[in-house]
Amino acid sequence: MPRAPPPRPSEDARLAAYKPGVDVARSRRRREDRLLAVRRSNRDAGLFKRRRDEPTPTPIPPARAATPSSQADDVPTTTTATSPPSSAPSSPPSSPPAESVPPTAADSELEGLSEMVEKVWSDDTTSQLEATVQFRRLLSDEKNPTVIKIIRADVLPRFSDFLSRHEHPQLQMEAAWVLTNIAASDYTLLVAECGAVPRLVELLESANANIRHQAIWALGNIAADVPTCREIVLDHGAVTPLLAQFREGMKVPVLRTATWALSNLCFGKLPAEVQVKPILDIISQLIHSVDEKILGDACWALCYICDGVSDGIQHVLDAGACPQLVNLLMHASANILLPVITVLVRISSGDDAQVQVLVENDILNYLAPLLARNYPKSIKKQACLIVSNISTGSKDNIQAVIDADVISPLIFLLKTSEKDIKEEAAWAISNAASGGSNDQIQYLVSRGCLEPLCNVLTYQDADLVYACLEGLQNILQAGAVGKQGQGSTVNPYAQFILECGGLDKLEDLQEVDNDAIYKLVMKLLEGYWDEEVSDDDPNLPTSNDSAETVETASEDAAQPTEPSASPNESE
């Protein structure tokens, strides 16, 4: 049966459908929108609180406990800020019936809570220290839900007062420890509002290394909570004394805690009075650390600065961080790769000059293995996003993508991967096809991009479908130019789109309730298939002739006229 001709729009509508080329500004806005979604999904991965656990008497500490009591090399919990915390509580081990469970030390101490409160509020320093240690022991047990009872005892202001008792450093230390663990709970705001923050900031200049470390830890937990808590810490000038902690010979455990606290302070919008350059001077050194915890938190801090500071991307580039960030794409740990590639995605969403810095640092050759090998889905998605953002730029950038042999793994992902990775790969291929030269289009087609791009036309994302249509439009235009140059009557790319079912998908899009998509679809249908009226038209090439035409076109496309357009001729 003859194919029904598509409905014809008015002449004005047809003229409006013709565009001079890819709308770069719209593409940049589109990639900014996608980046916002990526940031929201990743922001909690590097930002959470840490409880300081009770020291264990055994020589070898358990894997999840912080073991020191009063040494300067106190170690935070082994949970790192480079991987997201679990939202579900861990299942407790099975226990015997309630009547056979002996009372624990925490249970006994909790029964004497009233007595502990009396000692805390007494005037006797020995009693104050004894009771504060008891509170600290209760709070250091993560499985002992006593925080709310301690909160109700109204002792937080007293612990805050103890922070100013410079003549009793051990009492300061224990009080800071108590507040650290309360701040690691759901009651952080109470700690921030009880007057403890300015005193903790003051303790960053203490002569006692243990007290300085504990104050850093407490402030880091407070900053990791709601924006109000973080703003309280910033308003009391914590950044400058915190940066002063980064000194030569600093012990690794303290350096870990300080880097983590600094990354928490950098999350969100930094106030104008906070100087970014001193922060970046420190972080640009920390990203060379061999310690994964320090390295991961430093990279998250860079990501937060890119988002939370005016011209943050340029500040990061001016600090000279880009070469090392690109090198870190070879890191073996996904806990490092995630913050690293998140920073690079943010940079790739910047202006053309900022994107060019990535290209000049050879980022594409580092991305190719991430796309081709077995890496986590989140890494592959963001690698596709970076390629997509680079491809939105000039033809030189698209050529750089081709030269890095990134197209083949992208097309493989577009054909075989999960839906969300397919979508990111589709953006990358569509952007390259939309802005590519005729030789670059020829290379893309030779790698097999047409059929998977046609399949994208069935996706529900209207922006992605439109980008795909723009890519197909440029491909068809390149085919028309090649047809004229060869004196042929057949556009090989239009013919292949017809044979792989792409024409049917285009015609289905006439029913989509999206004016921009409809106009562009009409332009393609009328420009390249206006004479297609019947599946059995005698002028239509036979299936054998069609296969021969496509095969010949593919073979020709694999060898572009300019050698630089195909870096893989030997393959």
From TrEMBL:
InterPro entries: ARM-like, ARM-type_fold, Arm_3, Armadillo, Importin-a_IBB, Importin_alpha. Keywords: Protein transport, Repeat, Transport. GO terms for biological process: protein import into nucleus. GO terms for molecular function: nuclear import signal receptor activity. Residues 30-55 have a biased composition (Basic and acidic residues). Residues 86-100 have a biased composition (Pro residues). SUPFAM superfamilies: ARM repeat. Residues 540-552, 561-571 have a biased composition (Polar residues). Residues 76-85 have a biased composition (Low complexity). GO terms for cellular component: cytoplasm. It holds the Pfam family Arm. Residues 1-111, 532-571 are annotated as: Disordered. ARM repeats lie at residues 195-237. Residues 1-60 form the IBB domain. Belongs to the importin alpha family. Binds specifically and directly to substrates containing either a simple or bipartite NLS motif. Promotes docking of import substrates to the nuclear envelope. This is Importin subunit alpha. It comes from Oryza glumipatula. The lineage of its organism: Eukaryota, Viridiplantae, Streptophyta, Embryophyta, Tracheophyta.
